[in-house]
Amino acid sequence: MIKAPAKPKPPQSPAVTFRSQIEAAIAGGAPVAAMTLRLTLNDGRRLRRDETVPLDQISYLGGEMHYLGVKVVEGGVDASVLDQGA
Known about the structure:
Shape: elongated
Order of helices and strands: HEHEEEE
Structural class: alpha+beta
Number of strands: 5
Helix content: 25-40%
Oligomer: single chain
Distance between the termini: 58 Å
Largest sheet: 5 strands, mixed
Strand content: 15-25%
């Protein structure tokens, strides 16, 4: 009997991945205002549509999206990354 190939697990949510990175950066002394969350277009879409993210964790200030107070920039990167500033 041939078994069907196992379905690959979907990648971890950007909310989960970057929440821990943002918290670690803050604990390490990085100021929130200096950080930028650079997301691929797909990760940006996934973050906005993630039903597990409380509404107060995503905000829009001055036409910019923020996640946990960190400015979010979508597109222009091959892989999503937390830029902690200089």
